[in-house]
Specification:
Elements lengths: L3 H44 L2 E6 L1 E2 L3 E3 L5 E2 L1 H13 L3 E6 L1 H9 L5 E5 L2 H4 L2 E17 L5 H5 L11 E5 L3 H6 L4 E5 L2 H9 L5 E5 H14 L4 H5 L1 E3 L5 E10 L8 H14 L1 H10 L3 H4 L6
Parallel strand pairs: 1-5, 8-9, 8-10
Antiparallel strand pairs: 2-3, 3-4, 6-12, 7-10, 7-11, 7-12
Helix pairs in contact: 2-10
Length: 292
């Protein structure tokens, strides 16, 4: 019996060492996770305020309000997302071409637009804030209106005079070889269509309808032309509008959390409430799966 005592003690000691190592590994793993979280929080805090620069004339998504501050669907979504992230947000709007230039030069961290092949070299994208059904808009008194309403793809645009805005990356990438007038702004492009100087303006169905309604209500010089605008029945393409963050921005690490919060907003109804506020009675159907 005297010889068995040290053997039992040796086994107990060995077991104790095993459990000690296991406990140490668990504690160390938890510590690493905590430190990683602290490091990420510190990195975001150290980065300061997220500087978002965007278009001043793209209602109802984003535009310059009467007081000069940004307004629109994107503005409300961004404010809520960054509020939940706990990150300060600074927003500015300019003519679209200039806004893109400022972001590319490093004056801003990001902008909301489509991730084209050209932009992939310099930007990372979040999940889309909105997915647009691109459709043809035209005047119903256009002599070729039946042909226009039958267009089902970008190839079908050949032979028509189009209008789009300077700096519209998706259009520049997809309308090569087509007859396009490049207007200085979204408003100018709509005015050209309403006045009958072009055949087609390719726009998102629901935001396009909302913007036209607004312009009719304003009763401006092109009101009668706006009353004649109709939207085609076919979706030519679906464009994902995401927050694009410069690859050299200190905020690239927030993309997974940005996506999580955006999903959270869709799930809790706050995203739909913003949609309804800016798209009115069309907001209830503008973000359904069929529209994606």
């Amino acid at each position: 019996m005297l010889h068995m005592i040290p053997r039992c003690k040796g086994k107990a000691t060995s077991s104790l060492k095993h459990y000690s190592r296991l406990l140490f590994a668990i504690v160390w793993s938890c510590l690493i996770l905590c430190l990683s979280g602290i490091a990420l929080a510190h990195e975001t805090t150290a980065a300061g305020t997220f500087h978002w620069i965007d278009d001043e004339d793209y209602a109802p998504f984003i535009s310059r309000g009467e007081d000069g501050a940004p307004v629109g669907l994107y503005r409300d979504v961004m404010v809520e997302v960054f509020k939940r992230l706990g990150i300060p947000l600074n927003a500015e709007v300019y003519p679209w071409k200039r806004a893109q230039k400022y972001v590319e030069e490093g004056r801003g961290d990001g902008m909301i637009t489509a991730l084209t092949e050209k932009r992939r070299a310099r930007f990372l994208a979040t999940d889309p804030l909105y997915i647009v059904n691109e459709r043809v808009f035209a005047r119903r008194d256009n002599p070729r209106i039946q042909e226009i309403m039958a267009i089902k793809s970008i190839d079908g645009l050949k032979g028509f005079k189009l209008v789009d805005t300077i700096g519209a990356g998706w259009a520049e990438e997809n309308f090569k070889g087509l007859d396009v007038i490049w207007a200085s702004s979204h408003s100018s492009a709509l005015n050209l269509l309403a006045s009958g100087r072009v055949d087609i303006y390719v726009l998102g169905k629901y935001p396009g309808l909302i913007d036209i309604r607004r312009r009719i209500a304003e009763n401006g010089p092109y009101t009668e032309g706006f009353r004649k605008l109709v939207v085609g029945p076919h979706t030519l393409h679906q464009v994902r509008y995401s927050l694009l963050i410069r690859k050299d921005s200190p905020f690239t690490s927030i993309i997974p959390e940005f996506n999580r919060v955006l999903k959270e907003m869709r799930d809790d109804g706050s995203y739909q409430a913003i949609l309804d506020r800016h798209l009115g009675d069309l907001g209830a159907i503008a973000d359904k799966p069929e529209g994606r």
